Structures are given as C-alpha cells and as structure tokens.
Amino acid sequence: MKYDSRLIRRPNAQRPLRRTAWGFVTAAFWLFYLYLWAPLVTFVLWVLGINTALHELYLRESHIEPFLLFVLPLVALACAVLLIAWAEYNRFRFRGKDRRRAQADVPLAEIAVALGADAATASALGRGKVTTLHMDEHARPHGIGLA
C-alpha cells in the first residue's frame, strides 16, 4: 500500500483556535444528528410506556417533586466538595515528593528482536528524530529512510 498523507491526521499540528472551532462545529453537527433521531426515540418511548412512567414518577399533575428540586443539587454539591477535598488532601500529602523512578533504557538488541530487524535498523531508529520504516510483506523492517 502506498503512503497517503491524507489518511494520517495530526490534530496537534493545527493551531489551537482552529482545532477548537472545528471541535464546536463537529459537536453542533452531532447535536443536530441526534435531534433528527428524536421523533423515532419519542415514538419508541411512547410505545414502551416510558412517557407515562415519567409523568407518574416525577411530573404528577405538572408539579415538580420537591425531592428532586432540593436534594439532588445538595448531593451534587456534596460530591463536588468531596472530590475537591480529596484532591487537596493528595496535593498536600505528595507535595515536593517525586516518587517516580527513571525507567531503564531498553537495550538495542532487545528492540531489534522485538521488531524482527537487525541491530543496525534498531540503532537507526534510535538516532533519527523522524524516520520512515520500510517493511516487507510479512511486516518485518528491511530499511529506514531518514527525513
């Protein structure tokens, strides 16, 4: 298969403003797509009687249940407070302590064995910042092109 740059997307190469704008455009079209499904979903829920259950449980006689109005926001607030408290506790506990250890370098011979290539190919991969790895029909490397 021939290399085709259109198949590879690099969103990090775009400017953040452009990437964010296209994210909003994508979200708007997904919302519109979901809106198009609303009549079918409403019909299925009506057939299953979900609309009746909603009215009986939550909207009886067009009144909002006081439990939903007062308790659920309190539960959400309590969850937010607990999450922030836990994050602050961990920040206080682990501040200034770097517990991560450096990883040992993998030997070139082990990389070559994992790739199914020779040591020269593995070494060239380690030296190059941007490389093109040429593979044969059995997905084994047989050459490197440095960019």
UniProtKB/TrEMBL annotation:
Domain of life the protein comes from: Bacteria
Regions that span the bilayer: 21-47, 67-87
Organism whose genome encodes this protein: Luteimonas salinilitoris
Name used for this protein in its record: Poly-beta-1,6-N-acetyl-D-glucosamine biosynthesis protein PgaD
Keywords: Membrane, Transmembrane, Transmembrane helix
